[in-house]
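batch_manifest entry 22 of 60
target: ABC transporter substrate-binding protein
source organism: Lacrimispora celerecrescens
requested by: lab member K.T.
priority: normal
notes from requester: please return tokens only, no post-processing; we will run our own comparison against the previous entry in this batch. if the run fails, retry once and flag.
--- input ---
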Amino acid sequence: MKKIKQWAAMGLATAMAVSLSACGGGKSTSETAASTAAETTSAAASEATTEATTSGEPVELKFSWWGGDSRHAATEEAIKAFEAKYPNIKVTPEYGAWTGWEEKQSLNILGGNAADVMQINWNWIESYSQGGTAFANLEDYSDVLDLKQFTPESLDLCKVDNKLMAVPISLTGRVFYWNKTAFEEVGCDIPTDLDSLYAAGAAFKAKDPDMYPLALGEYDRMILMVYYLESKYGKNWVEGGEVNYTEDEVKDGMDFITELETKHVIPTLATIQGDMADSLDKNAKWIDGKYAGIFEWDSSASKFMAALEGSVNKPGQKFVVGEFVKMGDNNGGFTKISMAYAVAGNSKHPKEAAMLINFLLNDEEGVKIVSTERGIPCSTEGLKILEANKLGDPLTIEANTKVMNYSKFNLDSKFEHNDLKANPDGVYYKVFGKLSTGEIDSKQAASELIKGITETLES
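--- output ---
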């Protein structure tokens, strides 16, 4: 599979005057629409085509996805609207939080029990497509799924053996978010470089030893370490199917993570595990301002903001998008297809499944309901609809625009392989877990990480 390429900055024209461009190009929405008018299909035409190919026979579909409560609510509402438009199609939802989700769904996919329509991570295409058989070739259903709304570059990233295994929903990257209220309470500035990050650790510790300016799980630590290394050394993490950093350079990254703990910037993993929360957004210390920062995907931050807003013990907290923390002479960070929609290869109703995907990504009614719950849309038609109706979460738009303007590095297709990021048995979890407890030092951690990643890259 090809590596992700960096596309130009994206934004969405809203009441805040943020501009947005389609996935895969640097033009504004209006310019993109004008330049592709001859080859794109209008929403009305798509609707007419879809209705003309509906048999009217009773159809039952299953639709699976993960996410937070707001994504669940919006998707269920969109399903109801789809069923109202096509009364012969019944959609059964299956959803949950991310923890354990990939493990469960991978078993379903490999065992032939997957839902008809699946929200998938980009790396699932390589990990679970079984040579292009586990997922349907969506080009076979282009009569009901308008693929002209997506750039050829973004579709190419979703192909195996020249078969389109999925369509991209959005592009994403990681950015810093902060609880502004907590920083004001402590009396220090929101970090913008390493010095101010370390200074925040000292200030939070002095205010309350249970308060930290940033909280990171195992996988978060891996991504932030790569961000640090890219910022300092200016290289892609993986190049040509091999780890592109020496053991000494990775040791430097491990020392950086340990220093964050030592300087009270982040809590130890034992501390986070002792909080007894399924995920950070459900952690009482996050909800009540004890943990004041995260490094998170721009498409996933709304659940963290909602958790803060729902705090009973500390109402009125303000959640903001931060600037990228400078850690070297380069702009660290990578972008990726945040998620995609796929149809099970053994679905009994692949055409109707493709219709559901088209409704969610290209149909005016579906797009307006889902809005930016899965990030800034890659679909040109989806962007036009959001722009015309001044829709979209301003926080997501602001974060995505910052990510696309700043992060320039590539993500290799196996970075998120389950052998690496599975909790608790993935390489990332094992290595950073042992580093945090002191079971291994930074040199041993670097060696184990490189060894585990190399084995995955070679598999």
